[in-house]
Amino acid sequence: MSDIVHAGQACIPALHQPALALDFALARELTPQQAYKGLDQRDLDAGALIAPAQYLRLLANVASSLARTDTSFLLGQQMLPGHFGALSHALMHAHCLRDALTLLTRHQVALCPLLAPHLCEEGDLAILYWTDSAGSGAQRGFLVEMHMTAVSAMCRWLSGAPLPWHFCFNRTQPRYTEQHEVHLGTDLRFNCHLDAMLIDAAWLDRPWPRSNAVAVRAAAAVLPQRTFLVAVHDYLIAHIRCAPTLEQCASAFAVSAATFKRHLAAHGSNFQAELDMARSHVALRLFQRGEDNDAVARHLGFHDANNFRRSYKRWTGITPMLVRASLAAYRLQSR
Q1: What are the tens digits of pLDDT across the range 288-318?
Q2: Which residues lie below 8 Å from residue 272, measured CB to CB, with a gap of 6+?
Q3: Which DSSP category does 41 fall into?
Q4: Which residues pair with 90 in a beta bridge?
Q5: Domains of the chain, start order
Q6: Cα–Cα distance measured from residue 131 to residue 278, given in angstroms and rounded to the nearest whole number
């Protein structure tokens, strides 16, 4: 799988998003010493590629040095479409929301190198959910705010009006949500078991005024890449009904089981954690369709609904019944 980027691999052009973050910091009077702390400044010189861990360190330096509650949101405002060549040009001239989100997911490493977006449709609902791409650890909350703001701001600009996104956060509600409300709006839900942006699927194909088919075709020549974590997630989602094992996954990636485990460990993860996350994501999608515990248990290969219910609570901390009730309340609220 030559399209896969592994942990530690330099794959992010320093002149792209890292340069935007650096300019943002210096414009707010951070010193180069604060911004480059723990980094070799030469790694961020023109033309260089840096590893995700270096970009994460740069963002951590900026966030800790500025110590502001709006840093993640302000960085997100300038993140997309960006100035990243053919892909940014294609984003600026996407025909509709579906095309823009497809570009983001297909070219995740180039456009969203730290968190991976995944687009799915369940009935009349479109869901853009985010998974870890580079072992973000404690920085995940910051990255979620940055990426959600980036997509929301980009869509508002390209469509000509704010879109009615609903935002779900896999975290407890912070004490203050002013910045969330300023940059994302008031339709916020916390204590969810995934980070996601939801919108009525009817918005996916409404034409945008900047549409340019030539620009979008030019992006087709850019080869897509995925990080290892994203490739594993995609594989597990596609094969979840077959109860994939570590050995089967390793074989699919043409490595030994031991090497596969080392790759996951380098991203701060392990096979069981990735499998549990994939199962929980599929279960949520099935609940959104109105499936009951028995149907979801069968889909995921469990022998009975009770075993599935216990596993689901272990994965997410809540029972399937509470999830279904929350989804039902959301559907009523959205009508």
Answers
A1: 888 899 999 999 989 889 999 999 999 888 8
A2: none
A3: G
A4: none
A5: 7-67 (no CATH), 69-223 (no CATH), 227-334 (1.10.10.60)
A6: 10
